[in-house]
Each structure stands twice: as structure tokens, then as C-alpha cells.
Amino acid sequence: MCRFIAYLGKPITADELLLKPVNSLVHQSYSAGEMSEILNGDGFGLGWYVHRISDRPGLFRAITPAWNNRNLLYNAPLIQTHCMFAHIRAATEGSITEDNTHPFQYEQYLMMHNGGIPQFQRIRRKLLALLDDEFFVWIKGQTDSEHVFALLMQHVREMQGSASHLTEDQIRQCFQKTFDVIQQLKFEAGIGDEVSNFNIMVTNGHRIFGTRFSSNPEKETRTLYYSTGSSFQCTNGASRMLRNGSKIETVLIVSEKLNTYKDEWTAIPQNHFIAVDQDLDVHLSPLVH
Predict the structure, then answer these.
(1) 81 sits in which H/E element
(2) Rounded to 5 degrees, what angle do the CA atoms 43, 113, 262 make?
(3) pLDDT tens-digit map of 42-55
(4) According to the model, what pLDDT value does residue 32 have?
(5) Helix axes 168-188 and 121-129, enclosed angle (nearest 10)
(6) Nearest 10 degrees: CA dihedral of 137, 138, 142, 146?
(7) CB half-sphere exposure, 141, CA atoms < 13 A
(8) What's CA 246's distance to the chain center, in Å?
(9) Which residues 6+ apart lie within 8 Å of 88 measured at CB?
(10) Confidence band, pLDDT 50/70/90 cuts, at residue 194
(11) For residue 165, what pLDDT band results from cuts at 50, 70 and 90?
């Protein structure tokens, strides 16, 4: 299992999410509270956007544990952004290398994943055969996550065609098609009953889309929450999502709550798609298993 944070909203320095909260992402790398295995020490990744410079995200990935990464500890207070993805890894599929560390980047997109496809190697070859040359060559690592991202991005490109952008529902359809294709490959390989989990986040720096999905939702799936407000702040380890009126200016999506204020967090239902648009409106819609 892994843990991650997705942020969209008012500019914030990375340490406000990664270092300062009592249950920060760095804290979760050695003492996660909502998973059976508390360690996520097989690497760390951070992606962020500065659109006045480029549509492509900044990306920093390392194989050292987040709690012991001096570059992260030094630079987090110096990175300010309105959109950020951060991920700590507990390796399942693939060795501990930078190529296997989340987030993964394709053009202006970032993707990170908590979950997995059991016995992925039994469907990997057939999945690769579905990819066109661009996405086949793009894959650099061994993880099921990167392969799923490639398949999803291919579906996004096919859906978009010559259009300037996709609607929320069209992107939901791309996620659904990706999960359907993977499940079909699993059935063909005789592992259809093995449970795949896809807590996935994808962003282009303007919108965030993601899922909390299991191929068998009757089995326990990984946790996923979101929180909205005017700003997220942390003082002396005490973090809060502040609410100043009804206007939403900040959205957080997390594997694990950053504080104990339960009223700040909404659990995303199993087998649901979450969309955060440019106006920071949050929409949930069901997916089919």
C-alpha cells in the first residue's frame, strides 16, 4: 500500500502538507495510521505546477524514505504552488527505482496510485500489446501503476480526438474503460477473481480526476477522503481546513486524514469517480465493477 496527497487551490508551500501537520505525509511514511502496514519507505515523489513558467509539472522523485530525504526536507518550504501531487511508496510491483516511483508524468499530466493488480505479470504482455507505439515506448518502469496510466492516457487521447478538452463525464468514461479492459485481461489470464484496487489521481494542473475503485467492492478497499474550504493552514503541528464563508478556494484529496477533525473530511464512497474542476467544484459519480 501507499499514501498520497492531491492539492488544488490557493498557492501553498509544500511543507504545509508534507512536513508540518502532526499526521503529515512524511509522518505517514513511517507511521501510517489507516493501513495494516505502517511503513511507506520505498521512495517518495512530488509533482507541482507553476503555469506562468510551463504547463509541464515540476517533478522530484527519490528512492530514499521520505523521512530521511534531506532534499525534500530542505526544499519543501521553498516550493509554492496551486496544484501539487505527493506520494510515498510501499513497493509491491516493481523494484525500488526512480522509474518506479510516483507520480508518473506524461506531457502536462501527473498520475499517482494506491493499490495494485495482483499477479500483474500474467497480463502485462497483453496490456502492452494494446498500446500504440508512443505509449509503449513511454513506459520506463515495471509497475502496474505506470502501465495503467499509459492505458488511461491512450483512452483519453482517443476520446479527445481533435477537441480542445474532455468533459468530466468523458474522463470518467476513460477511467471506466481502463478498469474494464484490465478486468477482461485478468479473466482471460484466469485471475479474474483476484481483487484489483485503484485509488488513482490524475491532474493537468487545472483539474483533478480520480477514483476509489475495487474490482470487488465487497472486499475492503483503501481509504480516500476529500476536504474543501477557503485555505489549509498548519500552526505548531495543528492543521485545519479553514472555512471563510461558502466560497471554496482549496481542495485536498488524501489517502489518510491529516488531522483528527472528522467534520473536515468526507470519505469518498467505494467505486466512485471524483472530479475537481477549475472552479474547485467537487463532483462524485459511481463507477461499475
Answers:
(1) strand 80-88
(2) 95
(3) 999 999 999 999 99
(4) 84
(5) 120
(6) -140
(7) 22
(8) 27
(9) 2, 3, 4, 25, 26, 28, 29, 40, 41, 43, 44, 66
(10) very high
(11) confident
Q: Are 97 and 64 in contact (CB under 8 A)?
A: no
Question: How crowded is the C-beta side of 121, counted as CA atoms within 13 Å?
Answer: 4
Q: Give the position of cell 516493481.
A: 94
Residue 219: band (very low, low, confident or very high) from pLDDT cuts 50, 70, 90: confident
Task: Scan for cell 483503501, then name that residue.
Answer: 222
CB 213 within 8 A of CB 271: yes
Residue 231: phi and psi, rounded to 5, are -165, 155
Q: Among 124, 125, 129, 182, which Cα is nearest to 152's?
A: 182
By the 8 A CB rule, do 18 and 80 touch? Answer: no
C-alpha cell at 216: 470487488
pLDDT tier at 87 (50, 70, 90 boundaries)?
very high
Q: How many residues does the chain have?
A: 289
Tell me the C-alpha to C-alpha distance, in Å, between residue 235 and each of 11, 16, 20, 66: 17, 9, 8, 21
Percentage of the chain beyond pLDDT 70 is 99
| Maximum Cα interatomic distance, the chain, rounded to a whole number of Å | 53
What are 228-245's pLDDT values in tens digits?
999 999 988 899 999 988
Q: Give the residue numbers annotated as catalytic, written as ranges.
A: 2
pLDDT value at 35 more than 80 = no
The grid coordinates of residue 224 equal: 480516500
Helix axes 168-188, 144-160, angle to 10 degrees: 130
* Secondary structure element (H or E) that encloses residue 104, with its range: strand 104-106
Which DSSP state fits 22?
T
Please name the helix (run of DSSP H) or strand (run of DSSP E) that holds residue 71, with its range, or none. helix 70-75
